[in-house]
Amino acid sequence: MMSQHSEKQKMLAGDLYVASAPELQHDMAQCTEWLARYNKLERSLPDRLSSAITIITSFWDTMCF
Fold this sequence. Notes:
This protein has helices at 7-13, 22-40, 46-64.
């Protein structure tokens, strides 16, 4: 029996995938939201920036790998 792989699994494996798949669209929307939040941070506040980088890195690891 052949197993079904999600479009995200195919993408991460380097296989052909459908970029408009709901899971990938959802992930992209979340990444876009996080990037917008990151870009709004004031660079003069190192603690806030460090905290944001930690959150974004954790999000990236969860969503993308």
